[in-house]
Design a protein that fits this description.
The structure holds two protein chains of two kinds. Chain A is an all-alpha fold. Helices cover 76% and strands 0% of the residues of chain A. Chain A has one domain: MetI-like fold (Orthogonal Bundle). Chain A is built from eleven helices and no strands. In chain A, helix 1 packs across helix 11 and helix 2 packs across helix 11. In chain B, strands 1-2 form a two-stranded antiparallel sheet. Chain B is built from 14 helices and two strands, in the order H-H-E-E-H-H-H-H-H-H-H-H-H-H-H-H. Chain B is 78% helix and 1% strand. In chain B, strand 1 and strand 2 form a beta hairpin. Classes of the chains: A mainly alpha, B mainly alpha. At the A-B interface, helix 1, helix 3, helix 4, helix 5 and helix 6 of A face helix 2, helix 4, helix 5, helix 6 and helix 7 of B.
């Protein structure tokens, strides 16, 4: 076990190495991304402030991520409630299909939506990215919400019915508050996925690029590489922060219902 | 009729179906219909910029299967994702084993969380960082030169298939660890004690008890890495160079550059078909292997 532990620590270092390089070069004054490091600077972060195109991209990314997160979590609530409470005909097939985007290459999702959208005579834009992101975020939302619903004690809802509440008011007054940590966790995870997703956005974004699509176009210009590192640092820090908060809520929900079934996947 | 339907929706089955329907209908409209459209269009041909000739023909399939360029890209994609799968799963198994058997119960979820964090950060940025690390004047070469280990930059590590494999193996690491970890966690620890009590040594216990019981997790890990990597676009594009491009890059080129959606659709359908066949064969072999072990027990 001791040698395995050493291996595990090296493995973690390998996993994190690229991410740790980001801030190193984002604050390095040399325009070349290489060792040895030069001196400390925040110049590249101020460069970001001058890129007005980037601000538009940020705004459209935020808009898309918030909408996709809300849609995916809402769809996730329906499906998670259905599988954790009821057994219905074709359950395995239906759920398998809903979860399919987890393994399907994103380019397939992107291409197939593009074909339908263009064929029907619509033009792509933020809305089509939202459609695609909702599709790929829903399985993650379901996975999180399913464990939230599964650990919920059904007798609490039955008690509410006995006390004269309707199904709707029971859901609002009893179920919703108990699974709220799961819902917040699902919202944050979906937001993070949508914010970082590139391929679907690349195919379906039309004239307004999202932040990753804009970042991709920046990567072609060597002069902009330090600014790419700076923007990357901000995005990675933001993602990690959101994920830690999501995990906090997921665990709190698990603790509240007394059942920790493990991580996100 | 309406009354019958209403009664059906009050039953356990009916309520379940009713509840799942918004999500299922969304997946049907936004995933099943588009996927069917891809299959349909793959039999059409391009006629001008946005016009299709809708006569059904196998011409695209003939072109895709006979043109050496497409064949080469397809074979390379298969080889790359096969190798990436092998490397990721082999490297991941000891980690999953360590977290499941060597870490105290209260620290397990922390370890799993630490392993999954990088996965939640932007894929694009992680791939781009590998380009920066592996480049001619990159972090690795400049670092090794500064320490004096090499005099000339290493060139075999960027803009080729090696770089694609390293980058993908890094990106998909958590995918492989999680299913194996879940399978290991499910193993009843008393079975291992029983094997030891019956005189098996540590290695034989691992080979004859732990490994067969972990097989479903390994099968899941293989599929969850193999299927998405074959369609990866970003990694070959950023670190692959001309010799490291994969089928997804050609699909993108057909759709967005050459304006030949039908041929792009054909390539997408073929890639998915090949992956599906390999996955099914693999699952059958995996099940049979597990079944034989079960019978021997």
């Amino acid at each position: 076990m001791k040698s395995l532990k050493v291996y595990a620590i090296f493995y973690l270092i390998f996993l994190y190495a690229p991410i740790f390089l980001l801030p190193l070069f984002a604050f390095n004054s040399s325009t070349v991304i290489a060792f040895p490091l030069d001196s400390f600077t925040t110049e590249w972060f101020t460069t970001l402030l001058t890129l007005s195109e980037m601000h538009g991209a940020l705004l459209s990314s935020l808009k898309i991520a918030v909408t996709s997160a809300v849609l995916a979590t809402s769809l996730g609530i329906f499906a998670a409630m259905a599988v954790s409470r009821y057994s219905f005909p074709g359950q395995k097939g239906i759920m398998g299909f809903i979860m399919l985007p987890l393994v399907l290459p994103e380019i397939i999702v992107a291409v197939s939506l593009l074909i339908v959208i263009l064929r029907m005579g619509f033009s792509t834009g933020a809305w089509s990215v939202i459609v695609g992101h909702t599709l790929i975020c829903t399985p993650f939302a379901i996975a999180i919400l399913q464990s939230a619903f599964a650990s919920l004690d059904p007798s609490l809802e039955e008690a509410a019915y006995d006390l004269g509440e309707t199904p709707a008011s029971t859901f609002r007054l009893v179920t919703l508050p108990l699974v709220m940590p799961g819902i917040i966790s699902a919202l944050l995870i979906s937001f993070t996925i949508s914010m970082d997703e590139f391929i679907i956005a690349f195919f379906l974004t039309g004239a307004e690029p999202t932040l990753p699509v804009y970042l991709f176009s920046m990567m072609r210009f060597p002069k902009l590489l330090p600014a790419v590192m700076a923007l990357g640092t901000i995005l990675v820090v933001l993602s990690v922060l959101l994920i830690v908060i999501a995990e906090f809520f997921r665990r709190r929900g698990a603790k509240r219902t007394g059942n920790d079934t493990g991580g996100f996947l | 009729m309406v009354e019958k339907l209403r009664r059906f929706f009050r039953t356990e089955k009916g309520t379940g179906l009713l509840l799942v329907s918004p999500t299922a209908i969304y997946a049907l409209l936004m995933l099943a219909v588009p996927l069917a459209a891809v299959v349909l269009i793959s039999f059409w041909t391009q006629n001008g910029v946005r016009d299709f000739d809708t006569t059904m023909t196998l011409a695209n399939y003939k072109e895709a299967l006979t043109d050496p360029l497409y064949r080469q890209l397809m074979l390379r994609s298969l080889m790359v994702s096969g190798l990436v799968t092998l490397i990721t799963v082999l490297l991941a198994f000891p980690i999953a084993y360590f977290v499941s058997f060597g870490v105290k119960a209260e620290h397990k979820s922390l370890w799993i969380f630490l392993i999954t964090i990088p996965f939640w950060t932007s894929y694009l940025i992680r791939v781009f960082l590998w380009k920066v690390i592996l480049g001619y004047n990159g972090v690795l070469n400049s670092g090794l030169k500064a320490v004096g280990l090499i005099e000339e930059p290493l060139t075999f590590i960027l803009y080729n298939v090696n770089a694609v494999i390293i980058t993908l193996a890094h990106a998909y690491a958590p995918f492989a660890i999680l299913p194996i970890f879940v399978a290991l966690e499910k193993i009843d620890r008393s079975l291992l004690e029983a094997a030891r009590d019956l005189g098996e040594n540590r290695v034989m216990t691992f080979l004859r008890v732990t490994l067969p019981l972990a097989a479903p997790g390994v099968v899941a890990a293989v599929l969850i890495v193999f299927i998405p990597t074959i369609g990866d676009y970003v990694t070959p594009r950023l670190v692959g160079g001309p010799g490291g491009l994969m089928i997804a890059n050609m699909i993108q080129t057909q759709f967005l550059r050459l304006n030949n959606a039908p041929l792009g659709a054909t390539l997408a359908v073929l890639a998915m078909l090949i992956v599906a066949v390999i996955a099914i064969v693999f699952v059958i072999i995996g099940n049979r292997a597990a079944g034989q072990k079960g019978a021997r027990k």
